[in-house]
Amino acid sequence: MLDRNILYSSYFTRDKLVHHHINSFNDFIDKGLQKVIDEVGLIETNIENTYVKLGKIRVEKPMVREADGSIERLYPNDARLRNLTYSSPIKLEMTIVEGETEKDLVEADIGYLPIMLNSKICNLSGLSADEMITYGEDPSDPGGYFVVNGSERVIMTLEDLAPNKILVEYNQRYDENIEVTKVFSQRQGYRSLVIVERGRRSILEVSFPSVSGRINFVTLLRSLGLETDMDIVKSVSDNPEIIKFMLENLEEAEVSSMDEALEKIGSRVAAGQAKEYQKKRATYVLDRYLLPHIGVEEKDRYAKALFLSRMAEACFELALSKRGEDDKDHYSNKRLKLSGDLMEDLFRVAFNRLTRDIKYQLERASMRNRDLNVVTTVRADVLTERMIHPLATGNWVGGRTGVSQLLDRTDYMATLSHLRRVISPLSRSQPHFEARDLHATQWGRICPSETPEGPNCGLVKNFAQGVELSKGIDDSEDIKKILMDLGVISVGGSIG
């Protein structure tokens, strides 16, 4: 039999204990930064036929600008002793396009990015134990944290419900049990909660952001392009019991065509406006805020209609006891947000703020008849400040608090424990007994005993000793190809 001591000693290597943080941050450096830049693509301005085209982004090694203007390599211990932020300059390729003419491609300094210790961009990366000692570092220090204004800050791993996944449950309304289907639709950092619920007399209603109240299910499906009764029933189910429920919904339908449906929704989202504007606004809301993970184009509407139909079917299946409630505490319905994902959210918000500032600076320069120059236009401190402040305080974008914490240096074990901590977004003041309980699916993933006493009990957890984190696939093209080979028919929109 295998000696467990050998197994554990091989696991407890320096890079293994906090490798989830380091790998996630490396992934953010390699792909996340460029992904955010590609989402923006270009910066539009109010100057006629003038915009800025964005290219490749690059992160240099951590540096510090001294008082005399010289730039030196920065090491973590220097940052600790001098109360500096261990960060690297970010360079971005930008081109000003005026009409048909493109100016020369310029690499502008857009700000500084805090760097995780022992990540691939860190100055300690690849050094031997003796070299680390010469730079004032402990060779057995695992890294996986940041140095911000001289203090060591660690980004907590956040546990959250899985996005883009259909979950069904019972809910209470006016002392009645109703069936509810939810999905947290996520796209580019924006989360939209879409709810389908079966109310009285089996009538389905849908609620989603930017539309007040609930919309009739049939109205919504007709606005997405499924106009005939036959199309609507077929899209939901071929089960006779569910078809009976659907016929009740069709009898109660408020509209009979796509135009009527858009008018109906338009009167909700733009009350008191002209008819044309109402319809335009309705289509915009449906494209942008209804299930954005499927897509935000007109061609994605059919795929959205089918996804809503699948949610309706799940709702009726729960009502007919053909399926049970989904367990929100089951680990298959959970996802972990690591430091790389959280830094990406932060960078997205900071970069959007920078693009608005660049736009303003260019327009100001144009009004004064100055030459448009990207290098002089970019104010690097706009992005830097928005990257450092959340890390220093723990107040993250999206209103979350306590995301970054001061690293516990009581002893070595306390440091490792802190770097492997998982926090839940649930409120500390409410009971949430089920969420605090030890769930069977936590076996081998979450430590059953390492959790605080008191109000945080069961909400602040720690990784089990031999945990391995799997990550989602970015490129879904291979999966699509496999599904197509199996005979799945594409309906437009992305699979995800």
Q: How many structural domains can be distinguished in the coordinates?
A: 2
What shape does the CA trace take?
globular
Secondary structural class: alpha+beta
Oligomer: single chain
CATH class of the largest domain: Alpha Beta
Radius of gyration: 26 Å
Helix content: 25-40%
Number of helices: 16
Total DSSP E strands: 19
Question: Low-confidence runs (pLDDT<50, min 5 residues)?
Answer: none
Enter the CATH topology name of the largest domain: Rna Polymerase Beta Subunit, Chain: C,domain 2
Mean pLDDT rating: 88
Whole-Å distance between the termini? 43 Å
Please report which band the strand proportion falls in: under 5%, 5-15%, 15-25%, 25-35%, 35-45% or over 45%: 15-25%
For the largest beta-sheet, the strand count, sense and barrel status come to:
5 strands, antiparallel
CATH architecture of the largest domain: Alpha-Beta Complex
Task: Lay out the secondary structure.
Elements: H1 4-11, H2 19-40, E1 42-44, E2 50-59, E3 63-65, E4 71-73, H3 76-81, E5 87-98, E6 101-102, E7 106-114, H4 129-134, E8 146-148, E9 151-155, E10 157-161, E11 167-173, E12 176-187, E13 190-198, E14 204-207, E15 215-216, H5 217-223, H6 229-236, H7 240-251, H8 258-269, H9 275-289, H10 301-319, E16 334-337, H11 339-367, H12 374-377, H13 380-393, E17 404-406, H14 412-419, E18 421-423, H15 433-436, E19 460-462, H16 477-485
Parallel strand pairs: 10-18
Antiparallel strand pairs: 1-2, 2-5, 3-4, 5-6, 5-7, 8-9, 9-17, 10-16, 11-12, 12-13, 13-14, 14-15, 18-19
Helix pairs in contact: 2-11, 5-8, 6-7, 8-9, 11-13
